[in-house]
Amino acid sequence: MTDSDSTDNADRSERSAEETDGAVQVLDARLLPAALACWSATIAAVAAGWVAGIAVAACLILVALLSWVLLWAGTAHRAESYRVIATTVLGATVLGAGFALAGAWREYQVTVHPLRTVPDEATVHVVITPSDDPKPVRSSGSGAGRLWVVRAALREFRYRDEVVRTGGSVVVLAAGPHWRELLPGRPIEFRARTAPPRQHDLTVVTLHPVASPAAAGQLPWWQALAAGVRADLAAVARPALAPDAAGLLPALVVGDTSGLSDRVHEDFVASGLQHLAVVSGANFAVLLTAVLALARVLTCGPRLSFCATATALIFFVVIARPDPSVLRAAAMGTVTLLALLTGRRKQALPALCASVIGLLALWPALAVQAGFALSVLATGALLLLAPSWADHLRGRGWWRWPAELVAVAAAAFVVTAPITIALSGTLSAVAVAANILVAPVIAPITVLGATAAVVATCWYPPAELILHCTGPPLWWLLTVATEAAGVPGALLTVPGGSPGGLLAACIVTAGIAALRSARIRRYLAAAVLGVATAYIPLLLWFHGYTP
Question: What is the pTM for the complete model shown?
Answer without folding.
Answer: 0.84
